[in-house]
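URGENT: need a sanity check before tomorrow's submission.

F., can you look over the Mitochondrial cytochrome c oxidase subunit VIc/VIIs domain-containing protein record below? I want to be sure the sequence and structure line up before it goes out.
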Amino acid sequence: MSCPPPTPNPCTPTCPPPAPAPPCRTKPIMRGLHMAQTKSVLIQAILLSFSAGALWYYFGALPRRAAYKDYYAKGEFEDWADEMARKGIFQSVPKGSSHDKKHDK
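Structure tokens as predicted:
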């Protein structure tokens, strides 16, 4: 684009000034930046805690629950209690007496 010939008055520009160069980087959005970052961090924290809870439930609680269920299903508690009573481990049962002797009478 060419300019017209100069006018006799040097104070009045004849050509408009050139447009400024575009910025190299975009400007950050400062309005609401703190709230946007806070929301992002909260969403990440909620997702992380939910996934950690789900992993603990499936890999920690369910196997423990199954182990307790198996223990109580296969346990011979009466036999173990009679054996401990015969050995004198229980304070309330004298060493000479046994749970089996009471039921034999």
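My own read: Residues 15 and 44 are 55 Å apart (CA to CA). DSSP finds three helices and no strands in the chain. If you see anything odd, call me.
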